[in-house]
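Sample pair:
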Amino acid sequence: MIFRRRDKPALAERLRALVWPRGGWGRGIRYVWARMTRLPDPPHRIARGIWAGVFASFTPLFGAHLGLAAVLAWVLRGNVIAALLATLVGNPLTFPLIAVASIQLGHMILGNAVDAPPTADILFVFGQAGAEFWANVRAMVTSEPTQWGRLYSFYHWYFLPYLVGGLAPGLFLATAGYLVSLPMITAFRDLRDRRRRERAELKRARPVPLPGQSQTPPV
């Protein structure tokens, strides 16, 4: 297939790229920022999209962050592409911190005297719950029995605390992202427009050579 790599990367390399992409996270962040500043929308719409993407990353809806960010951006009349790019706030480096902190805070708000589970347990439980959910959905149209008991326990001890505990930091960081990105994008675009005007003025100020006259000045 066109543009496919000839040498398929090994599994270890693909897993490493999830945690530390080629070129580092700094290069990825600069690339995402460049994409956002070049989106064909006013700065306030892009900033609203960033708000939606950051907030969606603090919800326990793993696998649906992109869809939730797009819906929130549409409701807020923000830029959907900016929202999708902003969901990169939730990545393999930040998800463990977000999950543990949100679940612990959620249990505190709900009044449950429970310590935050290890990160490995959270990933395993969410993966197992997703598999059991779709197994029960398939069982509804087949002769297999449905089993919702373990999913109820998952909802009570993991999903609900995560949902409740992620609201406050999600709202705070999403609003901070909006307040920081709006003036930065505005200033970047003003600087870019000013440079374009300066280049256009310099181009107009250059003397137009007469027919047969060399365009390069004599040495």
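The chain is about 70% helix and 0% strand.
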